[in-house]
Design goal:
This protein is mostly helical and 333 residues long. It contains 17 helices and 2 strands. It has one domain: Farnesyl Diphosphate Synthase, CATH 1.10.600. 71% of the residues lie in helices and 1% in strands. It has a two-stranded antiparallel sheet with strand order 1-2.
Length: 333
């Protein structure tokens, strides 16, 4: 990682014990007597990745002084919902690599991947019903609905080069930032045995922190899909272009391009029979204005998110959450 960019492992060090409890809970939930299911869940167990959403439940729980022994279970539910979305997203994107191993749809097929994603969703919500408070189930059920709406909206707006930036950010936020927002809200608000939030005002502030951090994360992801090295990113890149999804780097470039460049961008996205659309886009169109603008927009979101951390008491954990914004902006994976 480049100098000056925080190492994620260092930022998560204060909650390593909590993360291990979360991981143990996920492993138990994914167990099944079916050998076929066992093969699948063993495979997706290799998709562990950053586990940033679950970590945010734990980091904010500790930073707010609200951490209970059920927070690890809440974090596990959040991470399993995210895992299910990854399995389903790889089908939508026709991805072949996820975190440096074959995606489920590539290793098996789309039918198996759909069913596995559904299995993981079911196990996540089963665990949520074992909690002593219904708050997590309520928040995460609504969040899952928003995730689905975001994916549907994005799919129906493919090849839409006239979309407004606020519409694009609303869709990107629903499909990505909403789970970050829920994780942060629950970290601050979840309390055992109580169905109402522990601190409504703090929960709202942390929800906004998570939304802005999550949207910034997605915008950087959109840049990596265009410019990233697949070996470093650890997953298939170029899938947005291949699937006709217009992300902010392309939308901004298109809006400010001349007529010839606009026509070529449309052709690369839409002309039938083209192979290597992402490569053609990189080679034939100067996307640097859109990439630079998207990075600047992500930086704005991180700056706003950092301001919301003033609601937390000063501590090393709060400082770590502040530095997490630097990781999001500078990451290459």
């Amino acid at each position: 990682m480049s100098a000056g960019i925080p190492e994620l492992a260092d930022l998560l060090e204060p909650i390593q014990g909590d993360l291990e409890r979360m991981r143990d809970m996920i492993a138990v939930q994914l167990e099944d007597r079916s050998p076929a299911v066992g093969d699948l869940t063993a495979h997706v167990g290799r998709f562990r990745g950053k586990q940033l959403r679950g970590a945010l439940v734990l980091l904010i729980g500790r930073a707010s002084g609200n951490l209970s022994h059920e927070h690890a279970a809440v974090a596990a539910v959040v991470e399993m919902i995210h895992l299910a979305t990854l399995v389903h997203d790889d089908i939508l994107d026709a991805a072949v690599v996820r975190r440096r191993v074959a995606s489920v749809n590539q290793r098996w097929d789309n039918q198996i991947a759909v069913l596995l994603g559904d299995f993981v969703y079911a196990r996540a919500f089963s665990l949520s019903t074992d909690l002593s408070s219904r708050l997590a189930s309520r928040v995460l059920a609504d969040t899952t609905r928003r995730l689905c709406v975001g994916e549907i909206e994005q799919s129906t707006r493919r090849y839409d080069f006239e979309m407004r930036q606020e519409q694009l950010e609303g869709i990107a936020g629903a499909k990505t930032a909403s789970l970050y927002a829920a994780a942060c809200e629950l970290g601050a608000s979840y309390r055992m045995g109580q169905d109402e939030p522990a601190d409504v005002e703090l929960g709202r502030a942390m929800r906004e922190f998570g939304w802005e951090l999550g949207l910034a994360f997605q915008l950087i992801d959109d840049c990596l899909d265009i410019t990233g090295d697949e070996a470093e990113v650890g997953k298939t890149v170029g899938t947005d272009v291949e699937d006709g999804k217009v992300t902010l780097p392309v939308l901004h470039t298109f809006a400010r391009a001349d007529a010839a460049t606009r026509a070529r961008i449309r052709d690369i996205f839409m002309a039938p029979g083209l192979s290597g659309r992402a490569r053609l886009l990189r080679e034939e169109c100067d996307l640097s204005p859109g990439i630079e603008y998207t990075h600047a927009r992500a930086a704005e979101l991180v700056a706003s998110a950092r301001g919301r951390l003033a609601k937390l008491p000063p501590s090393a954990l709060r400082s770590g959450l502040f530095e997490l914004g630097g990781f999001v902006l500078g990451r290459k994976w």
